[in-house]
Specification:
By secondary structure, the chain is an alpha+beta fold. It has three helices and six strands; from the N terminus they run ββββααβαβ.
Length: about 110
Amino acid sequence: MIRLGRRLAIDLPRLGTPVLEPGWYAYCGSAHGPGGIRARVLRHMRKDKKVRWHVDRLTIAAREVRAATFLDRSECDLVARLLEAGFTVPVAGFGSTDCENCPAHLLRRPQIG
């Protein structure tokens, strides 16, 4: 979960320069690379990193970053469940350029209250 405290314009190759509004976002990703889940989550929590993935632009600018792991589900399963729960797609294709199933792997949490 990524909380943006202000509007954020992000320059994304192939996706343009969308502007994300303040609020909570869910990024659903996998961790199949070296170091597995622990390494990936720790990387997302750091502010001092080289921008490598789309989500890095958000985590660097975020007011708050939280993580939850689901060992028995894929990121696509999580995206589907969050969409059913009312989350929306703020930028089509964000984080899912290699996915044939999901409209995006970044979702925006509905406003509460």
